[in-house]
Amino acid sequence: MRSAARSRRTAGVSLAVLAAVGGLAACGSSSSGGDGGGSTSASQAAGGGAYTIWDPYPQYDKSSEWVKLLETCGTQAGVKVERTGYDTSDLTNKALLAAQQGNSPDVLIVDNPVVSTLAEGGVLTTTEENKLDVSAIAPNLLAAGQSGGKTYGVPIGANTLALYYNKEVLKKAGVDVASVKDWASLTAALEKVKASGKKGITFSAIGTEEGSFQFLPWFWGSGANLTKLDSPEGVSAVALWTDWLKKGYAPNSVINNTQTTSWQEFAGGDYAFAENGTWQLANAKKAGFDYGIIPVPGKDGGTAPAPTGGEFVSIPVQSDTGRYATSQKLVACLTSTDNSLTTTTTLSYIAPTEAVQAKQVAANPDLQVWVDAVKAAKGRTSDDLGTKYPKISEPMWGAVQAALSGSKSPQDAMAAAQSAAASATQ
Residue 347: its pLDDT value, please? Predict the structure, then answer.
């Protein structure tokens, strides 16, 4: 039974939820399109024969493979699925309101940074309570849905960031991409590209969660930790980007670039590198030039941990706990090994289990670099940051903006960010 105290606690986290919902841009899912079908009013009151599923994929209608899979899982569970697709921010707000009213959907699919906020607000059940099996899920991906040592759902898939490169631009500059192994060798490659008359690297440093998402591989790749933004390592990551702008290796437009506009710059054919995600693979194939992909390099070599994008399938708290058994069947069906390949292919994600990742690579060898990147990836709310993450992310992206614009030095920008983050997370 949902207690009044739990409901009040849920209401108290609404602002934190809103602050945490910026991650969809990281996932690359379309926010265009209307309701993907189903009823927005169906709930527990509809009875045992109807179960509601809310997801952040409004771009998929009833004819899509995704919705067909939802309906198939409902049939296998002996119930009718009533599905609604919302934009991510809209979905989070509606899920919070529904929880306050004791009228949550039976299955909720949300962007991974939001999970810990909803969980800490008492909105979601734990996998211990709902009996979801997460034993085969990669621990680094599962961590994005954990809070206080408990797990609140199953990742439906993951995406992350890597570096796309233009083979012709690098060839003209005399750069062997195999030589790019760390920050020094990448910077040397950018210098050669500029000298050849072409452009170096583009990325998104916009003052939103997208900017933090793109900065994190460099921040984590330096060895820095989000609890100490102004560490020498963290400052070195900001200094790297700042130096690239000063030397003309990256354009000033990165300050306002979204991941979409950054990609459009790369697609023009003059840039050697672009930091972007799995979701651009289809566009890369349409770009009209030969491209390749390498992981974002760590400062001293190796693959930098990039942040994970993607959603978790969770089971919200219900006053009628008898519904959990069927909800568990629905989630188990959606995330099963057999169906995961369909789901991740449809959503352009990398699967959360090694078994399905192997199937993806067998079907498309080009995905191996993304599988490797996902294996090294890290949840933004990991390290038990939970609801603290958005309070750290905002001053961090502000610091990056200040340094790139020249209003503050990297050291001063990150020192101010650390002070703001420490105050906000006390």
Answer: 84
